[in-house]
Amino acid sequence: MRSVLLGAGSYLPKRVLTNAELAQRVDTSDEWIVERTGIRERRIAASDEKTSDLACTAALNAMKAAEREAKDIDLIIVATTTPDLTFPATAARVQAALGINQGAAFDLQAVCSGFIFALATADNFLVRGQAKTALVIGAETFSRLLDWEDRGTCILFGDGAGAVVLEAQEDARERGVISTFLRTDGRMHDLLYVDGGVSETGTIGKVRMVGNAVFRQAVEHISAAMLEACARADVSIDTVDWFVPHQANQRILDGVARRLGIDVDKVVSTVGVHGNTSAASVPLALDTAIRDGRIKAGDLVLMEALGGGLTWGAALVRM
Ligand code: UT7
Fold it and tell me: pTM for this structure?
């Protein structure tokens, strides 16, 4: 039994926030942001746009690409750090809004690694026969967690959503999720966190990050996770057709590629125009590269991410 990726979809809010606009708010410059991160612009959700709205549009686009309807979906996992409400799960809202009246729907919280964790979770449900067709969504209105006076974080993040449809198939002919690797090290909790929450402060809080320390952890752990996902599948990293990384910083993408001897032309980069959209970043990049014709049926794709927790992981998928 394999979890075959039948289709992907995404959604970006209309409002573009440029580096030049940010330079009017905090002590920064377009040159600094581009040189240190590769980010030129990011999208910001409208005040009446919720995470579930972004998630629903991405999910509908993925269902269309997968040629699956509401009646086919029996599992929804929404990876998000920015739920509509503390409860119920954003996934429950998505389920109702899409007219899906069967199966389970829940949120998963692994911050920027959320989509990789959700993909691995859905894969386990499908190969165990506990669901047949899953919507795996990464969706964020991350801008609502930003401290717009902190130049170390507010320049990095953006809003958006991406989704895939996974289906359990017995005769998958090598297609589908081949291996996944997930890891959390809670000792690094304080390197990247939000300084508020239901139980500790009763507030929403803002993102806090020790940027350069997270940067070092990212290059090291992402590289190791990619090698581990390949090793688990007994596949050489040289045979991977496309790398779809979490879009945190172009220098992290370049650093990992250098470390593993990967051809940079095989690395999908959307960080320049999306910024870091947390759990949405990997499916947004995946959908971009499928729609522009780079990633094709039969290609071997390696996705990876690292985020707050710290959490990190990788997933190897034959399209
Ligand atoms: O998605 C979850 C994972 N997140 C990440 O992977 C993010 C990882 N971290 C990063 O991407 C980078 O660390 C940053 C882009 C956040 C920062 O870049 P850096 O090259 O690591 O800079 P730094 O934090 O070491 O700071 C260097 C200098 C500091 O000034 P001083 O102390 O040397 O005078 C900062 O205050 O750059 C300053 N700085 C800025 N200057 C202009 C920090 N942010 C800015 C800014 N504009 N926006």
Answer: 0.98
